[in-house]
Specification:
Elements lengths: L25 H28 L9 H22 L7 H19 L7 H13 L2 H27 L12 H39 L7 H15 L4 E8 L4 E7 L11 E3 L15 E6 L8 E6 L5 E7 L3 H6 L4 E9 L3 E8 L7 H69 L4 H26 L8 H16 L2 E6 L8 H22 L3 E9 L2 E8 L8 E4 H7 L4 H9 L3 E7 L3 E9 L6
Parallel strand pairs: 9-10
Antiparallel strand pairs: 1-2, 1-8, 2-3, 4-5, 4-7, 5-6, 7-8, 10-11, 11-14, 12-13, 13-14
């Protein structure tokens, strides 16, 4: 996933600072400077036109006339460079801002009123278009200093007896102009800051939504969205905690600073730890900062309700379990609802964006409001796609059973009948018919094993215990090998992906047992405890070509043990141990964290 958001005016994401640290790309900067150049040229033309319309052209002479004409020429030259030139010089925006300020500095010295004062306002507008509030204020301060400079010089000259007397100096004009520029700077800067924030929020929303790419898997999409939210807020970690209203189970996804392109593993929150995440929050959306001198771990929280109304600030103490798992100085939380299937919370750990907490909290609420329907939509598509795949696998298995398998069984029965007739009519070919019947029987078993592999994980109940029990029972009936199944729990739910991988692991183990071990008995056991699922398979066959107990890494290093089963165990992040007793049998023990039923 990308590290930071890419906005409309951003070319490269940054590692810190979030979407509010905007890095204009050359095309965006060139476009902005071209707009400013057009406005600059138009302003110079308007000044001359205004003087002509007021029959005031004769007052626009000397320094003032040279100032306007030079300004118009520079504006035209800049526009030509930006329109037909090559790459825009990097320093051009700063250079043109200095030109604007320099021209503004000449206005007080021209002793010309009227339309020429527009040149004092233009640098403020240009700064607002390029930058933010603080840049506009700095520009306003510089312009005020330029306005006061002629009066200050005249005042100093009068005190030294080099010019007019102090009584002759008019202080009202500089005060009025500086006040006007200061107030205009605050107003324009306020508009610029809010427009910048609006565009940044829009860019951030677009960036997060863009991560939900059409056709992506649900887990991959969720990883991309959580990582994008983490980067937008320049946070250390993002957590998504969802409560399944149907099963009353709680699951957690996390995208931390070390996240890779692999989807985050969903972790079920155990009953004893549910209060660490499903706690009473200060509001629908809230931003809490730790009080440094608080002994009981209190946070100062800014919160808003679901309607966007500010809630009176209160002290907030996060659950100790939450703080132990995610130690932080700041935490941002938002409640969310995915239709009626899920409710949950998004936690942003240690957001580092330098905005007011209320502003950030309101943005987080809007962000969750836009992304929640997308996540829910992908979940529905994922569910439909999973059911469609399961239905197609079941259809193929039925076609094989009703077609090829039945035909092979019918052919086997015909050969058995021929073999019985051959005992009396053609004894010499009876043994050959028996060998053909044995080959057909073996192929029927292989076909049924293929059907088991296709059907694995398609149990309609979603209960892995029921599915494994049916697999063991069919194995016993098809092969004649005594097989038993015992489970500590009658119902164990897990995600469709984990359920299918578990069924395929047992299927592979039973196939290997029939082909290679000459076992007469097999025992399969399951158990679920502390969020982990355990599967053990024990037989009385020939065992593996080693004696003792070995883990999956040891088996990989020695190139021993069931390779395909080991690969599937690694796919689900599990552990495997094989104990072999050559000539007496072997046992395989597998355990892994069971994922959510609706992953």
């Amino acid at each position: 996933m990308p590290n930071t958001p890419v906005t409309l005016d951003v070319v490269a994401p940054r590692n810190l600072g979030g979407v509010w640290d905007r890095v204009p790309d050359p095309a965006a900067s060139r476009r902005a400077e071209r707009v400013i150049a057009v406005a600059r040229l138009f302003s110079a033309v308007v000044i001359v036109e205004a003087a002509i319309a007021q029959s005031d052209i004769f007052r626009l002479r000397g320094l003032a006339l040279a100032l306007v004409l030079s300004y118009a020429a520079i504006s035209l030259l800049a526009l030509i460079v930006l329109t037909w030139g090559g790459a825009m010089p990097r320093r051009l925006p700063i250079l043109m801002q200095l030109v604007d300020l320099g021209v503004a500095a000449m206005v007080p010295w021209s002793h010309t009123d009227g339309a020429l004062t527009l040149l004092l306002v233009f640098p403020l507008l240009a700064a607002a278009y390029r930058q933010r509030f603080r840049h506009v204020l700095i520009t306003a301060v510089v312009i005020d200093a330029l306005i006061v400079a002629p009066w200050a010089i005249a005042h100093a000259s009068a005190r030294l007896g080099l010019g007019a007397t102090l009584e002759a100096l008019d202080v009202s004009a500089p005060i009025a102009n500086t006040t006007f520029v200061a107030i205009l700077g605050v107003v324009v800067g306020y508009f610029a800051e809010n427009e910048h924030q609006r565009r940044s929020e829009s860019d951030a929303l677009s960036y997060v939504v863009e991560q939900a790419k059409p056709g992506a898997e649900f887990a991959g999409m969720l990883h991309a969205v959580l990582s994008a939210i983490r980067d937008v807020f320049a946070a250390r970690t993002t957590l998504l905690v969802l409560h399944d209203t149907k099963t009353a189970r709680l699951f957690r996804w996390e995208a931390g600073p070390l996240s890779t392109t692999e989807p985050p593993a969903a972790k079920e929150v155990l009953a004893a730890s549910r209060g660490d995440y499903a706690f009473a929050a200060p509001g629908d959306a809230w931003h809490a900062v730790a009080r440094r001198l608080s002994r009981r771990g209190a946070f100062d929280a800014v919160a808003i309700d679901a309607e966007g109304r500010r809630i009176e600030a209160t002290d907030f103490v996060p659950p100790p379990g939450f703080m132990a798992a995610h130690p932080c100085h700041r935490v941002l939380g938002v409640s969310l609802t995915l239709e009626k299937a899920w409710t949950g919370w998004l936690f942003v750990i240690d957001p580092a964006i330098g905005l007011r907490r209320e502003v950030l909290t309101r943005f987080a609420q809007r962000l969750v409001g836009h992304t929640s329907p997308i996540i829910h939509g992908y979940y529905l598509v994922h569910s439909v796609r999973t059911r469609a795949q399961a239905a197609e696998r079941s259809r193929i298995a039925r076609e094989l059973h009703d077609g090829i398998t039945q035909s092979l069984l019918g052919l086997e029965m015909e050969i058995v009948a021929l073999q019985r007739r051959a005992l009396t009519e053609a004894p010499k070919i009876s043994a050959d018919l028996a060998r053909v019947q044995k080959l057909l029987r073996r192929e029927v078993i292989r076909m049924r094993e293929t059907m088991e592999g296709i059907r694995a994980g398609n149990n309609a109940s979603g209960n892995i215990v029921e599915e494994l029990a049916e697999m063991v029972d069919r194995f016993r009936r098809y092969t004649g090998i005594y097989a038993s199944f015992v489970s500590a729990q009658p119902v164990i739910s897990m995600s469709g992906h984990m359920r299918r991988q578990t069924a395929l692991i047992l299927h592979e183990a039973l196939v290997n047992l029939r082909k290679h071990t000459r076992a007469s008995r097999v025992s399969v056991r399951t158990k679920a405890a502390d969020g982990r699922f355990q599967l053990s398979i024990e037989d009385d066959g020939g065992g593996f070509p080693f004696a003792g107990r070995r883990t999956l890494p040891e088996l990989d290093a020695l190139r021993q043990g069931p390779r395909i089963i080991g690969e599937r165990v690694r796919m689900i992040g599990g552990e495997m141990t094989v104990e072999s007793r050559p000539g007496l049998g072997a046992s395989i023990e597998i355990s892994f964290k069971s994922g959510p039923a609706h992953e």
